Amino acid sequence: MTRIVAGESAVPKRKRAIEAALAIGLVFLIAVGAIVASNVSRNTEAQAAEPSPAAELKLGYFGNVTHAPALVGVKKGFLQQALGSTKLSTQTFNAGPAAIEALNAGAIDAAYIGPNPAINSFAKSQGESVRVIAGAAAGGAQLVVKPEINSVADLKGKTLASPQLGGTQDVALRAWLSKQGYKTNVDGSGDVAINPTENAQTLKLFQDGKLDGAWLPEPWASRLVLQAGAKVLVDEKDLWDGTGTGKPGEFPTTILIVNQKFAADHPDTVKALLTGNAESVAWLNSASADEKANLINAALQESAGAALPTDVLTRSLANITFTLDPLAGSYPKLLQDGVDAGTTKKADINGLFDLRALNQVTGGADKISAAGLGQD
Q1: Separation CA 90–CA 56 (nearest Å)
Q2: Of 31, 136, 153, 235, which sits 20 to 30 A from 105 (CA to CA)?
Q3: pLDDT one-digit tens code per residue, 310-348
Q4: Longest Cα pair distance anywhere in the chain, in angstroms?
Q5: Who's near 176: CB < 8 A, 6+ residues apart?
Q6: pTM for the full model?
Q7: From CA 81, how far away is CA 69, in angstroms rounded?
């Protein structure tokens, strides 16, 4: 039965009930549609944000023997083969600070570089700029001087060179002089004058008698010794006792770093780069002396414009260890050296290393350690 109230008919009552039901149904459909649309949107966004291989990898390195993993990787095609469809583009630099500037500006995505510029970049950006993802070379840096300089005491008032202000050899030189009681300033003044100079120019200035010495990576230390009559006053390997690394005499000269955003956007590309780097290091550690010399010289001819005399290359290679280990345990000392040198401020470098992909590539039982300064 339908109850009828005075002044109201049964028909309008039923009509309002139907309209209410339709309204409720419409609200339900809208809600369901909103949920579906939201899910579709989230799925679309997730697909859009999903990491993918980069179309291009822009890589920086130096025309030095200490950068042989890069030279070999490019020349033999190890890097491009590992990268697959990703195009490899390369750019050469004289020293680390210039490479860091290019990387931070987006001109390159990854670089073979010395450790101190990487530390500086990480510190200045508060951990946002770069990550160290592998090692490449250890050793191969010396302070070479005029023959008449026989001791530390003979350096007072002399003029020395380094590849670039704030670079790894520049920091090593300034920190060492500080420990000897000498004051140096970044403007070139002090007890010992340090003039950051491009390596090729350093050789010429030394030959012309306008420099008393230089702290240099290979092959430039060997070139000054064998082509300009310099002698070794300090072999940097003698300054490293293995504290933090367990490897006396080894110190990081060349490491592989990557722009942090590029690594986050293209992890597969970074892993491919690490694969190519590992193949290059393995080849350098297994090839004959003649094979290495011929290939490195051919690569130097292309990247630096000139090959090296056999004796220079032989001496250079004898001073270098090619390794995938970035020797993370040495970085607290490297940081302190930068502070002592006046080129770096005290900083927290925890997070500088991300060696997870490297350890996946090597797959060995001996994990390469980040020494508590990142992920491994």
Answers
A1: 10
A2: 136
A3: 999 999 999 999 999 999 999 999 999 999 998 999 999
A4: 124
A5: 143, 215, 234, 239
A6: 0.84
A7: 15
